[in-house]
């Protein structure tokens, strides 16, 4: 039985990970530390908040005494680190918070883990798992090979640079102090509970509300998309069987241009609305409610500065060493995502009207 401290699990991937982990490891105790910043939403954890295996603590990873006391008082042996400022556009307009949380915050966690696990508490079988992104590798040309764990770091946004710095700090605490660490770098995730400023939920909800679907530049930027539970599956494999000090890339072998992602989503919504009077009544402003295609909402907007052209993940290391294989394809994953947002209207409406902050 393990005792986990999971940072940033009121956010998209962490909240999905908590439920995923509990389904697979029902005897483990879980403590979540989350500062509830911009994308943090405690109601994303509503299914687990009152469970006896679960504890929620509102606080910052930059608060070293708090982190030390959680590690010691809950006898934590496994720290899974999701907490981050994660929205690239926000890192362009206000990079400071990204430096504070992603770099200083990660370093604070490492200092606390070193102090408690290698010192005071002496927990030999500890593990610090760091969750990172493929954006640290920069951008690819159309025919470049996909990012492998040996690809040189070349981050292009303040977000990617701050995540790259945090990856290096995690690595350094392993090599310098012997902290037991693993790192995973994952491609773009999608699925339930994703904050509706990200491409897929933003477009899905704009289709329902009849608002424009903003596409940066020509929409030809290519991303590799992975269903969020397939990311959790990869993290679980790395935590349980990954080699200490190693990095594993997690990806879906599922490259799509942004414009094609949006068109596929439009197709799914067009067919959901076809002949469905209940959806047309619930979402009367959607063009689909009038029998028009959601594609009519596509609007091209000025490109993001420094927008990376293509990301692609070579996941052969995790697949060969740990037997990793994503379970969801894009069509099934997108349909599950659409199902979730249709059933959980209260969750996303509270973000759109700001009431989730209370
Ligand atoms: N979303 C993706 O597609 C993707 C892909 C690869 C890697 N990642 C990484 O996965 C992790 C989670 O991403 P996400 O999309 O769930 O992000 P998110 O923005 O939805 O959630 C981040 C969470 O961190 C919390 N947080 C922020 N600052 C904090 C602080 N100082 N102390 C404690 N908590 C704090 C927020 O309140 C929020 O709940 C990040 O580290 C991100 O870099 C994300």
What does the largest sheet look like?
Answer: 7 strands, parallel
Q: Strand pairing plus helix content: what structural class? A: alpha/beta
Number of helices: 12
Radius of gyration equals 20 Å
Mean pLDDT equals 96
> What pattern of helices and strands is seen along the backbone?
EHEEHEHHEHEEHEEHEEHHEHHH
Helix content: 40-55%
What ranges have pLDDT less than 50 throughout 5 or more consecutive residues? none
Portion in beta strands: 15-25%
> Which small compounds were modeled alongside the protein?
nicotinamide-adenine-dinucleotide
How are the secondary structure elements laid out?
Blueprint: E1 3-7, H1 12-24, E2 29-34, E3 54-58, H2 64-73, E4 78-81, H3 88-93, H4 96-120, E5 127-133, H5 158-177, E6 181-186, E7 188-190, H6 199-209, E8 213-216, E9 222-227, H7 228-241, E10 247-250, E11 255-257, H8 258-273, H9 277-282, E12 298-301, H10 316-322, H11 330-343, H12 345-352
Helix pairs in contact: 1-7, 2-4, 4-5, 6-8, 8-11
